[in-house]
UniProtKB/TrEMBL annotation:
Entry's localization field: Cell membrane
UniProt organism field: Streptomyces parvulus
Source domain of life: Bacteria
InterPro entries: MFS_dom (IPR020846), MFS_sugar_transport-like (IPR005828), MFS_trans_sf (IPR036259), Myo-inositol_Transporter (IPR050814), Sugar/inositol_transpt (IPR003663), Sugar_transporter_CS (IPR005829), XylE-like (IPR047984)
Alphabetically ordered keywords of this record: Cell membrane, Membrane, Sugar transport, Transmembrane, Transmembrane helix, Transport
GO cellular component: plasma membrane
Lineage of the organism: Bacteria, Bacillati, Actinomycetota, Actinomycetes, Kitasatosporales
Name the record gives this protein: MFS transporter
Transmembrane segments: 20-39, 59-80, 92-113, 119-138, 150-172, 192-211, 273-295, 311-332, 339-361, 373-399, 411-430, 442-460
Family: Belongs to the major facilitator superfamily. Sugar transporter (TC 2.A.1.1) family.
Pfam families registered for this protein in UniProt: Sugar_tr (PF00083)
Length: 472
């Protein structure tokens, strides 16, 4: 799938105020997939220690159960585009909603560790689908004048989903008397945490029946009259819709279907620009950001923080993530992608280095010394803030803009796959690394954050203000 061409400059191409509210509703409904993406990704944070205790597993096995969802994510992301091109964007959303619902129920009621892992893979497949279908659909139904702002709904929904999952986990833990395995509604608290996702999953499914199919998909299957009606709903009624449909058809015919072999070349298998995209994806993950969202409760408890407080700190970290994302959305087109990436890297180095320093001290009565404890807590929030206002948003902007037209789709797919693999590597390795040396683990993340600075300076070119056709 790709975005509708933005040819033409007619002033009538912006939505009228009475249409804009409808378009915002459509984009927000589609972005519920992003909310579930964030929610499902991080809700496991509240169940890690309970799963370890209930099934009596070591760090290595536990890590695989947590990280295995990412395998489903990679498969879902790789197949969502083809599924949506065959059966439509709305049907694809509905499939994802069903998978999210099934995953939530199964994860809340597992028979054993193996089927918990299976339900997580199913949820991961839904996450992968949502990560692709949401942005593509929003781009295809949005009037060109509002496409950037409406497109940002997806990222905003993801970080809100992360925050809400942590708030729900914290509330449920308090209701269970601070015990992740405490009884709630006849189940253990962690099971309820994983099961609550049924609510937004069902809502996502219901909303998918209230929004129209993508005009681009309808045109691709010959339903031109229906496409015109939807274009009128989102762009107003003073547009030449016959010309608009013809324009979309021409854009679709002009698009080149890039393939994996188009990426090959240069001295090291891939073309240099593809390696730069892979590098951006890997650095984004190798700074350890997902440790903050998958394991933060476990991390704080390992240095003596009370379980209830650890869940609250996970929630405050998620709020900081939202703040940083909003900052990035405001400044990415003003300051530029490259300066934001560099600012973020410097801030992450400082935050991670301070965490590594704080965690290097021996525990006293099972806790970090007071000064080091506060430094670790503040530094963790600093790290998440600088990540969110830079690499969290900028990498996806770069990946959407930096590749030449002829290889964009295939190159973006390879870079996104590299991101899921890097995410899996960090997620699967953290428990064992933390058992080995928590401070040393954060030194490793600090080194990667520091290396990202010369990488950006030497290899990454600014894409702000350039037309996609200028990318060579």
């Amino acid at each position: 799938m790709s975005r509708t061409a933005q040819a033409g400059s007619s002033g009538a191409r912006t939505a009228h105020p009475d249409h804009l509210g409808h378009v915002i509703f459509i984009a927000a409904a589609a972005a519920m997939g992003g909310f579930l993406f964030g929610y499902d990704s991080s809700v496991i944070n509240g169940a890690v220690e309970a799963i370890r205790d209930r099934y009596d597993v070591g760090s290595a096995v536990l890590a695989q159960v947590i990280a295995i969802a990412l395998i489903g994510c990679a498969i879902g992301a790789a197949t969502a585009g083809r599924i949506a091109d065959r059966i439509g964007r709305i049907r694809c959303m509905q499939i994802a909603a069903v998978l999210f619902t099934v995953s939530a129920i199964g994860s809340a009621l597992p028979f054993a560790l193996w089927d918990l892992a299976m339900w997580r893979v199913i949820g991961g497949f839904a996450i992968g689908m949502a990560s692709v279908i949401g942005p593509a659909y929003i781009a295809e139904v949005s009037p060109p004048a509002y496409r950037g702002r409406l497109g940002s709904f997806q990222q905003a929904a993801i970080v809100i989903g992360i925050a809400v999952s942590q708030l729900v986990n914290w509330g449920l833990l308090n209701a269970a008397g601070g015990d992740q395995r405490g009884e709630l509604m006849g189940l253990e608290a962690w099971q309820i945490m994983l099961g609550v996702m049924v609510v937004p999953a069902v809502l996502y499914g219901l909303l998918s029946f209230a929004i129209p199919e993508s005009p681009r998909f309808l045109i691709s299957v010959g339903k031109h009259e229906r496409a015109k009606k939807i274009l009128e709903e989102v762009e107003g009624n003073d547009v030449d819709f016959d010309a608009r449909v013809a324009e979309i058809e021409q854009a679709m015919h002009r698009e080149e279907k890039s393939s994996f072999k188009d990426l090959l070349g240069g001295s090291f298998f891939f073309k240099p620009i593809v390696w730069i995209g892979i590098g951006l994806s890997v650095f984004q993950q190798f700074v350890g950001i997902n440790v903050a969202f998958y394991y933060s409760s476990t991390l704080w408890q390992s240095v003596g923080v009370d379980p209830t407080d650890s869940f609250f700190y996970s929630f405050t970290t998620s709020i900081i993530n939202i703040v940083g994302t909003v900052i990035a959305m405001i400044f990415v087109d003003r300051v530029g992608r490259r300066p934001l990436a560099l600012i973020g890297s410097v801030g992450m180095v400082i935050g991670l280095a301070l965490e590594a320093w704080a965690f290097s001290f021996d525990l006293v009565d099972g806790k970090l010394p007071a000064t080091q404890g506060w430094v670790a807590l503040i530094a963790a929030h600093v790290f998440v803030l600088f990540f969110a206002l830079s690499w969290g948003v900028v990498v996806w902007v770069f990946l959407g803009e930096m590749f030449p037209n002829r290889i964009r789709a295939a190159a973006l797919g390879v870079a996104a796959s590299a991101q899921w693999i890097a995410n899996w590597a960090i997620t699967a390795s953290f428990p064992s690394l933390a058992d080995w040396n928590l401070s040393g683990t954060y030194v490793i993340y600090t080194i990667f954050a520091a290396l990202s600075i010369p990488f950006v300076l030497k290899f990454v070119k600014e894409t702000k203000g350039k037309a996609l056709e200028e990318m060579g």
